[in-house]
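Standup notes, structure subgroup. Blocker cleared on the LLCNDLXC input:
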Amino acid sequence: MTTRVRPSSKRCAVIGGSGFLGRHLVEKLLERGYSVAVFDIRQSYELPGVTFYQGDLCDKEALRPALKDVPLVFHCASPAPASDDRALFQRVNVQGTCTVIQACTELGVQKLVLTSSASVVYEGADIKNGTEDIPYTAKPMDYYTETKIEQEKLVLQACDKEGGLLTVAIRPHGIFGPRDPQLVPILVDTARRGKMKFIIGDGTNLVDFTFVENVVHGHILAAEHLRPESPLCGKPYHITNDEPIRFWDFMSKVLVGLGYAAPRYHLPYMLVYGLAMLLWLLAMLLRPLVAFKPTFTPMRVALAGTHHYYSCEAAKRDMGYKPLVSLTEGISRTVESYPHLRHGAP
Ligand SMILES: NC(=O)C1=CN([C@@H]2O[C@H](COP(=O)(O)OP(=O)(O)OC[C@H]3O[C@@H](n4cnc5c(N)ncnc54)[C@H](O)[C@@H]3O)[C@@H](O)[C@H]2O)C=CC1
Ligand SMILES: CC(C)=CCC[C@@H](C)[C@H]1CC[C@H]2C3=C(CC[C@]12C)[C@@]1(C)CCC(=O)C[C@@H]1CC3
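Run returned:
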């Protein structure tokens, strides 16, 4: 006879726990007394209180030991948006997420918290104070967004309030903070190549950038408020800093903080967007012969030149969310954490 261990409520698993957001989440969970199983395709650190399971989330047998006897699972794994590899996104974000749901259901996991993205409703047009009832975009701007939509639908539809798996999705936007492998490194690389001199559009567009610890806070609150009778079941929630900022002011603050010049010269949005589309088409056509990845993709140009900020009122109402770290504090902690990316650093 096999006896089933009753999962401790202070045990959880983080799929994608080696990544930027995942590791911050793991550190906060440990601080709050959880013991954590990390499942990831790579192991990037070691910490007391963390058990690592290395494997691909598309492989149910590999997932099983990490999710066994765990009541709560966070799923924050995804290929990087910059990879732009359609087959990989489809395999990991869609098929892999089906596998995660199946494994959770078979192993009796009680709660699954997905890291989705606010970009599931973004299609290149302005979004001002967007709420969660905006429909998914029918015209996703890249494969990453296309598969994040499918992934979110799968997880939310799997919610079963009648004693089964409970699910909720967190939609962060523009996460930044120490150890981010994407926003600050790409920005600095672009500046070092002399390409951050220009402001796309009139520079007044407001966007959300969200400090990583606020995103973590939203995930933990969601997990702790997710119960069969709570409004969170099967719902998505925006988690933001609640301080929309001009895209180009944010970029300038980070650049100047690291010793680079702020962008100064304006270029018309439609001109840059048109050029980005042309370059993108060229890159697609030449792909079999030469591999080149334009820095200014249509998605990045759209993000740089339109309003895209979201309301986090639903998270405040349903889970008592409020940002813990202000934008000013978050930017200064981020800048300090990248001494190697400072202007003139060896
Ligand atoms: N960084 C951002 O601005 C935003 C990120 N998100 C979402 O947040 C989540 C975390 O993103 P980041 O921490 O920024 O990315 P990241 O790239 O730092 O972390 C993702 C982790 O997933 C792991 N992973 C990828 N494929 C895997 C597989 N097949 N099996 C197991 N592990 C796998 C990677 O090894 C990595 O450790 C993702 O779901 C992303 O879509 C949402 C909105 C904004
Ligand atoms: C114009 C330019 C080259 C700016 C450099 C910074 C960009 C690399 C970032 C600015 C906004 C960021 C962002 C994301 C990735 C990095 C940026 C484009 C996401 C696409 C990451 C994944 C998401 O789910 C949504 C993010 C929106 C903001």
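Discussed briefly. The longest helix spans residues 86-107.
Next: hand off to the docking folks.
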